[in-house]
Amino acid sequence: MESQFFAYCQMEGTETVRAGEVARAFGITPVQERELLYRLARDGWIIRLRRGLYLVPPKLPPGGTWMPGEALVLARLMEDRGGRYQLCGPNAFHFWGLEDQVPNRVYAYNNRISGERKIGVIRFTFIKLADERLGAVVERETAAGIPLVVGSKARTLMDAVYDWKRFGGLPRAYIWIRGELARDPGLARDLAEVCLRYGNQATARRIGFLLQTSGVSPRILRPLRESLRSSISLVTLMPGRPRRGPIDRDWGVIINDDCQTVSPRKQSEI
Predict the structure, then answer these.
(1) Which domain holds residue 11?
(2) Tens digits of per-residue pLDDT, 121-168?
(3) What whole-number distance in Å separates Cα of residue 49 and Cα of residue 74?
(4) Residue 22's CATH number
(5) Is-above-0.85 flag for pTM?
(6) To which H or E segment does residue 51 belong?
């Protein structure tokens, strides 16, 4: 039956199989189909994307175990759900060379799924966002010819500040931003734009302050500054730490940072 299954998939040229399809093609009962698909997935010959949907290799995997990459899994899963995704967090940090460590799970912003899943041997953390919060991405084609969607460098840096609690992005994000600006001053405009479009008020205040103290042109910062709502409440540069330190009134930031994010000269000016 297993051989017939793969022969059928190759003949049909299909990459995914849905529950009910095999039963109709082979003239078997739903129970027999379920047992067949369960055995194939259990033994690693096919991958269960979700209940009732399976990913099939183009040919029998050597050694009997198939390990598709995350790009293929994400592409087919999002196609099935009619959604979009973009790698974020530790995966995007590694992709852009901000971190050397290879993540042991895949983090993906998307507009369909939320929660943790294990698909095949890959562990995923799906973070569901509203449609308008997806964007600012680049696509890279894998060796297998599958597009992999990743947040742009500016979006990745912004997310490290915006989603600091989930990704443990602070204070590393501030250090990354200063380093990347030193290498590519043009990144400042991209960072201000993605912050304006995809960030929130706290992120705009923190990143705006950091860009200003990095010497970025006021012309670039003007739209970000104008987006700020007047408020008597202040945000801390390092959330979760005591609210003590110099205050930047322009951006509404308490500089409670002890990691050299702001130079001593800049702090004294404030």
Answers:
(1) 2-64
(2) 999 999 999 999 999 999 999 988 999 999 999 999 999 999 999 999
(3) 9
(4) 1.10.10.10
(5) yes
(6) none
